[in-house]
Amino acid sequence: MTDTVISAKDLSLTFQTNDGPVHALKDVTLDIQKGDFVSFIGPSGCGKTTFLRCMADLEHPTGGSITVNGVSPEEARKSRAYGYVFQHAGLYPWRTIGGNIRLPLEIMGYGKADQDERVQRVLDLVELSGFEKKFPWQLSGGMQQRASIARALAFDADILLMDEPFGALDEIVRDHLNEQLLHLWDRTNKTIGFVTHSIPEAVYLSTKIVVMSPRPGRISDVIESTLPKERPLDIRDTPEFLEIAHRVREGLRAGHAYDD
Fold it and tell me: Which residues form the ABC transporter domain (predicted)?
């Protein structure tokens, strides 16, 4: 029995525009295994977010195939196989933090007691216990993103798809949330797909780093991390870390990332 959770084969996506076709993805082939933490890195326009959105059934490929848990992304979406975290927290300002986390559970028809238990559990996971009755505007940007992650975790999907969730945060907050995300991943054993522009973030978080290049979006390198699962922040100063970061940078250069 295979442990492959997400499988793309020769995946292509072309958008039709008034100025002609835009080839967002071309011939992308990749397997993601259960429990992997896979980062997608590349310049703007390389298709990394588009690829994530294909997994989530938010975009529809024009060529090739993609499966999630052995079924189509649409079937996976309907079976609630994944949670999705966007670049901005997207919390409703008129709902409390607990109310925002509760929203997908209400839509899915969970009972009140089940909702309460799940909200408390995910608040604990993202270290926001005690903030259930606060409103989003009463929380910092980093705390709002943690609430957004909690909302995506509330219905306990096995897959977590994250589209540059920490990109708008300052470096100190980002470092802290990177550490917290690794702890969360370790505790939950989710399979995570993570889009980022940051080489240190990609190397620090991932078991596998997918380097993408633009025009059209394709994979230029897949790097299996040799770092241990336990990763204090200062691992970023080690020769092993710097060597992986160098390979990512070389992969970006090889994909002509700096032609823009």
Answer: 6-239
For residue 257, what pLDDT is reported? 44
pLDDT tens by residue, 188-211: 889 999 999 999 999 999 999 999
Per residue in 127-156, pLDDT tens? 899 999 999 999 998 899 999 999 988 888
Nearest C-alpha neighbor of 97 from the set 79, 117, 120? 120
Q: Are residues 135 and 219 in the same domain?
A: no
Instruction: Based on the fold, state whether residues 145 and 241 are members of the same structural domain.
Output: no
Q: pTM of the entire structure?
A: 0.90
Residue 64 lies in domain: 4-81+157-254
**What is the count of structural domains for the chain?**
2
Q: Is 29 found in the same domain as 145?
A: no
Q: Report the mean per-residue pLDDT for the chain.
A: 90
